[in-house]
């Protein structure tokens, strides 16, 4: 991959921060956007803006066509059999809540179990706490090993015929860990459980094919894969979408409205209430075109190279890295603790050097508790990052050490 050429597409990367070139190492939180995405969204507003699925006039038709075109691109990007198996949402949090409302609250009963893992982002914990509390079902957790992997040694007693849903991340935002999805999907299906995958970190960085994975649901965040904020979706097998209840009411999600009840539009529109984030999803379509032109295998190979380099340099500089050390088991979100410097202090000093990292619990407080830390510093990489930027990070860490240690 020609990283210099990629970088030239991202105008924000030429910014100076505190007198230094920006080194953006927080793509795990949200990625930057290339001109192609910014232009696609602006072009929508400049030339095609109208509400989708409503106006019987030229602009309305164009807006609908672009919006539905983006759905087809997202479907093909994750290997979904038809565009209708993609519900547009604002991202992974909304997608998980849609499953928890539309499926779990309808089908869970007392005595049923939902299984998740201690590695999950709060967006894949809290919806299940709410849904199990509302239905009398029980929430159970797969624990973690010391080196940041799922501890599957007791899987047989956690995943049983009481388990109705297993929801698991494809890649941890706090540890970088890539989970063995195919093995987990098979194990869950063997006991009759459905499987939801949190794809927030996996889909932007890895080739994903829902057909091959055979998962029942996949949550996708557009803003972490070069797309606009509030873009993304939920893939679900068609039979689940048919069976699920809508979460929001109003707008084009109805077929008929009577005084005492309403009937629903067809899938996926029955889940898309109100005016949707049309410009953003059109921008996501352009982001998918961009990633596909790079090639997802190239995207992954580039990240493996940077992550390997970052792990070596961080460990060599005295940082404690959380999560797997072998790049085959992990993505490019690298959590660490640097000597005795609190992550918040570290992030503040790094910012003075133009380096943007995340510091905090990363919406994964169970992970922080498991490893006995209040927070970690996290550098996360994407298509535009370079090994030279890792060097800038390491030099800035040394400066922080001089101040704090
Ligand atoms: C693993 C994981 N799940 C869920 C989310 C939430 O995604 P969104 O911001 O699209 O709602 C994130 C975002 O940080 C994440 O990293």
Question: How would you characterize this protein structure?
Answer:
A 7-stranded mixed β-sheet has the order 4-10-9-8-7-5-6, sandwiched between helices. The protein has helices spanning 3-8, 35-48, 58-77, 92-107, 126-135, 155-158, 181-190, 202-205, 210-213, 238-243, 278-294, 296-316, 343-352, 365-370, 387-404, and strands spanning 16-17, 20-21, 23-24, 86-88, 113-117, 138-142, 163-169, 194-198, 217-221, 232-236, 254-257, 262-264, 319-322, 333-338, 355-356, 358-360, 376-380. It is built from 15 helices and 17 strands. With 405 residues, it is α/β, with parallel strands linked by helices. Pyridoxal-5'-phosphate binds next to helix 4.
Number of helices: 15
Say which molecules are bound, naming each kind only once: pyridoxal-5'-phosphate
What Rg is obtained from the alpha carbons, in whole angstroms?
22 Å
Query: What structural class should be given to the helix and strand makeup?
Result: alpha/beta
The N- and C-terminal alpha carbons lie at a distance of 39 Å
Described by the principal axes of the CA atoms, the overall outline is globular
Strands, count: 17
The fraction of residues in strands falls at 15-25%
pLDDT averaged residue by residue: 97
Major sheet: arrangement of strands: 4-10-9-8-7-5-6
Helicity range of the residues?
40-55%
Poorly predicted runs are none
Largest sheet: 7 strands, mixed
């Amino acid at each position: 991959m020609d990283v210099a050429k990629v970088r030239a597409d991202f105008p924000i990367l030429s910014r100076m921060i505190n007198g230094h070139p920006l080194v953006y190492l927080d793509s795990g939180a949200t990625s930057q956007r290339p001109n192609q995405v910014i232009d696609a969204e602006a072009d929508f507003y400049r030339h095609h803006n109208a509400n989708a699925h409503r106006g019987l006039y030229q602009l309305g038709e164009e807006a609908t066509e672009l919006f539905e075109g983006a759905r087809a691109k997202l479907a093909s990007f994750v290997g979904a059999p038809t565009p209708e198996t993609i519900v547009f949402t604002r991202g992974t949090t909304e997608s998980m809540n849609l499953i928890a409302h539309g499926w779990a609250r309808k089908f869970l009963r007392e005595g049923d179990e939902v299984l998740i893992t201690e590695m999950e982002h709060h967006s894949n914990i809290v919806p299940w706490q709410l849904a199990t509390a509302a239905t009398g079902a029980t929430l159970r957790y797969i624990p973690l090993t010391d080196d940041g992997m799922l501890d599957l040694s007791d899987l047989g007693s956690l995943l049983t015929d009481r388990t109705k849903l297993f929801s698991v991340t494809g890649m941890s935002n706090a540890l970088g860990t890539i989970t063995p999805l195919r093995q987990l999907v098979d194990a869950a299906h063997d006991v009759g459980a459905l499987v939801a995958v949190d794809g927030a970190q996996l889909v932007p960085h890895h080739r994903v094919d829902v057909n091959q994975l055979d998962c029942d649901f996949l949550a996708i965040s557009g803003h972490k894969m070069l797309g606009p904020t509030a873009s993304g979706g939920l893939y679900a097998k068609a039979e689940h979408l048919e069976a699920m209840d809508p979460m929001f009411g109003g707008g084009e999600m109805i077929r008929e409205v009577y005084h005492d009840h309403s009937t629903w539009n067809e899938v996926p529109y029955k889940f898309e209430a109100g005016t949707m984030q049309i410009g953003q999803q059109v921008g996501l379509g352009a982001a998918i075109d961009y990633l596909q032109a790079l090639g997802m295998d190239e995207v992954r190979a580039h990240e493996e190279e940077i992550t390997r380099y970052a792990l070596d340099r961080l460990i060599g500089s005295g940082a404690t890295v959380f999560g797997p050390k072998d790049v085959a088991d992990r993505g490019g979100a690298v959590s660490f603790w640097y000597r005795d410097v609190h992550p918040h202090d570290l992030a503040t000093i790094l910012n003075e050097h133009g380096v943007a990292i995340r510091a905090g619990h990363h919406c994964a407080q169970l992970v922080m508790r498991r490893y006995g830390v209040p927070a970690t510093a996290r550098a996360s990489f994407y298509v535009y990052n370079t090994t030279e930027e890792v060097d800038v990070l390491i030099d800035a860490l040394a400066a922080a050490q001089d101040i704090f240690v």
